[in-house]
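[recover] target loaded
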């Protein structure tokens, strides 16, 4: 069993009341909308934080980056984590001029996000996918996001999952 999976199991168990609260709110709704409750678990430190929030407000709790959706920035991040940031810069800026230009524009956007205080934990695509999964799970399951400690040089990892309402309310 992976350490993230073990940590997630502990978080869900310790935060069951939060999941029950979300399940009660969700079961009272007749249709899905952006106010549908979901659970955000922050298990990046010893002090676990769990909150029920409308799915439309997730971006307020889990900072989202538009810049990391760029294929070039994703490639740069992959190379940087496998080798080094210097090697990644060289790989992205040498070679195809159009690719280098796209990378430069996206990287500048990433730097601007960081400068203004946005330290995106996930991409806008990830957020949209989570919202879609929440809608698909309605009304049978509560959608959840778990922020976990990173490994191998990462600052964090994110797991998304659903928890069945029947099992929460029985």
């Amino acid at each position: 069993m992976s350490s993230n999976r073990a940590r997630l199991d502990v978080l869900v168990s310790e935060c069951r009341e939060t999941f029950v609260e979300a399940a009660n709110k969700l079961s009272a709704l007749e249709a899905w909308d952006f106010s549908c409750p979901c659970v955000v678990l922050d298990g990046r430190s010893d002090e676990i934080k769990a909150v029920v929030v409308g799915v439309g407000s997730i971006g307020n709790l889990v900072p989202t980056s538009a810049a990391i959706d760029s294929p070039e920035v994703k490639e740069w991040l992959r190379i940087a984590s496998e080798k080094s940031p210097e090697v990644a810069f060289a790989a992205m800026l040498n070679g195809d001029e159009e690719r280098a230009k796209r990378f430069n524009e996206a990287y500048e956007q990433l730097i601007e996000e960081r400068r203004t205080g946005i330290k995106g934990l996930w991409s806008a695509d990830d957020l949209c996918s989570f919202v879609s999964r929440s809608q698909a799970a309605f009304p049978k399951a509560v959608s959840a996001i778990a922020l976990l400690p990173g490994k191998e040089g990462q600052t964090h990892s994110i797991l998304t999952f659903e928890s069945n309402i029947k099992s929460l309310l029985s």
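[recover] notes: DSSP finds eight helices and six strands in the chain.
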